[in-house]
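Batch manifest, entry 17 of 40.
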Amino acid sequence: MNKLTLSNENLKDIAERLPVPQYDRKSVTPGIMHFGASAFHRAHQAKYLDDLMNEGKALDFGIIGVGIMKGFDERMRDALKPQDCLYTLVAKDPFGSRDARVVGSIVDYLYGPDDEERVLEKMASPEIKIVSLTITEGGYNFDQITGEFIADNPDVIHDLNPANPPRTVFAYIYRALKLRKDRGVRPFTVMSCDNIQENGTVCKKAILAFAGLVGDEGQTRWIDSEVHFPSCMVDRITPRTTEEDIADIAFEYGVADNWPVVTEDFIQWVLTDDFGDGESTRPPYEDAGVLIVNDIIPYELMKLRLLNASHQGIAYFGHLMGYELVDEAVKDPLLREFLAAYMDREATPTLQPIPGVDFALYKKTLLDRFSNAAIKDTVARLAAEASDRIPKWLVPVIEDRIAQG
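Output type: structure tokens
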């Protein structure tokens, strides 16, 4: 099978091999700018938008990916731009079946250091209604002990000088919001999609802390009163893309994709409806299966303390037991028994009831998801960034259990 390079020009031919966007990408206009358009974002939020666009909805909410990290984000730029920001998304279930498609909801990708002013001007334009983030649990620059924003971070200090090009997401958001305020443009919503309890509140605290360091009290008050920071719970196990994944897609579908995404078949998104002027300022996410709620905390506790904290249990014990793949580790009876005991005896007593959710079934589903050999998730991925993850996912369980006696 001859290989077709992913591009708008080749979509018609690629459609004979796997599903492609059912909408005219030329009719899609940007409405979201997303910092951190790596595998998880492309398996999750971008997929939900693509679902809506395939139904003829949310065509004014195309995503512009933004990268500001040297190395990784430069590679992402070089991978996505030549293929018109299209990519292949492959969802694999534990039984060997796969669901592959080309996703088209990301319409552009900007690497900040290439042209910081272009990124800021785009963020300041009225068409951008949401700036969303997947910048990892440690990306919010809080001291794990004191809980305070780290004011002496060298990049933060650099960004406090308005003459310097921005390095941090805080500076990009602050400066873009200042441009909007000065020009009389309503602010965008800032939507954190990271695995942190009350991530919207945490994100707002970080932006306000940076604004406070800048020292413009009027701008700080405006952000505090006018900018919305919804919280959400996101869930989809998405390993890092490997060379084997790229080769597999080329062989299976005859598509040359620089950076595809391989993920599990499960997906979930729970979101608070805090977007300023209501539905006109956000896509109709609920039409794509997103659960819109008033109280996010019970859902966050369930996911962070059962899934994410259990991942930490798999990571270190699995590594010490000699396992490289998550599914192999979880199939070890000793480790599986340990995970079940942690979830039942430690995590579950700290959760809040959720109408319609059976925790016993949820925990069984988690163990089945961890055992999915098709996605080849690695123990090493789960063990990364432990000093950011353990304090946010596991320590709160310990604290709550101590409080319970």
